[in-house]
């Protein structure tokens, strides 16, 4: 998980930005699953 976050943080401000992107993507997938 940290590896994916680090990949996103490579061109972001850090691993925290990558973690937020991952959570946002998961939230979208879960929302569309219920719809």
What are the low-pLDDT stretches, counting only 5+ consecutive residues below 50?
A: none
Radius of gyration, in angstroms, nearest whole number? 11 Å
* Alpha carbon gap, first and last residue: 27 Å
Number of domains: 1
Helix-strand pattern: HH
Largest sheet composition = none
- Strand fraction equals under 5%
What is the number of E strands?
A: 0
Task: Summarize model confidence as the mean pLDDT.
Answer: 71
Shape: rod-shaped
Which tags fit this structure?
35 residues, mainly alpha, 80% helix, rod-shaped, Sporulation protein YjcZ, membrane, transmembrane helix
Outline the structure in words.
It is a single chain. The chain starts with a helix and ends with a helix. The protein is an all-alpha fold and 35 residues long. The radius of gyration is 11 Å and the shape is rod-shaped. It is built from 2 helices and no strands. It has one domain. The mean pLDDT is 71. Helix 1 (2-9) packs across helix 2.
